[in-house]
Predict the 3D structure of the following.
Amino acid sequence: MRLHATMFIVTVLVLSMLPPHLLQCACSQPITNVKIKKEIIFKPGYVVANTTITVLNGSLNVLSYKIGEDVKSLLYVAVFAGDEVIEAKINWNGFYIVLPRNYKIFNLIEVYNVTTDYENDTVKIRFPLTITPREASGDAYIKVESPASNFAINYPPYFNKTAIGAIANLTAVKPGTVDVFSISFYQSDLFWVKPVSLNRTVILEGYDEAVFVEEYIFENMLDSKSERVTLTLPLNATVKSVEGSTGRYTGRGGDGSYYRWLEKNHTMLTITFRSPLFRRGERIYVKVTYSIPVKAKDNTIVVPVYHSSGLLLIVFVRKTNTIEIKTEEIIKKEVAPETINKAADLYTQKTRLYENLATLKIKRLNDEISRRAYKQRLARIKSQIKNLNQKIDYTKTSIKEISKKTYEFLNQIDHEYGILESKIGELDRIEASYRRGELSKKAYREKIAAEKEEIDNIIAKIYGKITLLKTE
């Protein structure tokens, strides 16, 4: 009897000394069965891992990962479930997340600094690879997108090389499986420039626009030529200027220039330096000024900005000058998700047609397409726009009966199309002036380039409004 009592007391003491999340695991139900889909992308100096976890059997009320000393390279980690963001608790050798409810599907976002080893003309990059939490097991699909087409996978051996990176299909992965991913490149194949300093100023001159002035110090990470950098901006950003220490950059190409383009839900800004960087550690100064539309509600202005990892942050600026930062949707939806998503898809298709229309006209102005082919494609695009307008009108009518607020928002998008059509029509007027001899060849090209930039800015603004419509 005395021996049994002693064992009972020791057991209780040991359990009571465990951290709450481990105590929860120790007393939890059997291991949960999950499906893992993990996508990893490289950024200069770090990686972003987006893991979709689907619970198949059982439930998860906590996730915990043990990554050892690699916890020092962890920049950010959280669970995104619908509109909710659950921050992780980080300890000396890992992290854990307590889930407030039993989600069936959610995303784990991890951002890690990479470890780099330089040898002659190559660079070896490694980072921790979390696969399953200690509370779950199951199949896992992992995709790693490579930043260069020429590379070698060092570890783990179960990854298969593809044209764009590496993939792994794993079955029945044990709980708490964590690995290390290692990949090698020739330094000349990478263009890795990282911002070592960012001074961001936000100027609010009214209730409908915010101006961002961002001053960067970029550093070359490799012993190879780096002549450009690409920044991620909000989708509806309008670039006002790009400047260096020796003057303004232009939108006309070559050294000391920049151009913007759209990718998924972002505006991408590629800047070609005035003076390329050739050695690891060399630095250059760049100042970027852009504006975005903002929403005002009561005494609060909502400003969407991007963290360096690409995560969207929403900043609420109040009249009291206090700032609150959250990660959540900008607007609430009043219409059924399937209806509003249908409207967003129709407007997206229409915007792409206008992009094609502008591109087609510019090709014709630059004599890159025959007049006959131009007329055929022009007629086809206009016919497609007409058909889409009929579908949009029908969808708008159904929305008007449910939400006047959403209907008015759609009218704002339609108004932007009117401005866009006018700008595209300006291309024809530029051509007419050139044919009449009122413009030189150089002035003609410059006017086309300037008009194209204005058209791109309007299209970006339309895409930004469409983004506010979409639901998950």
Notes: The mean pLDDT is 80.
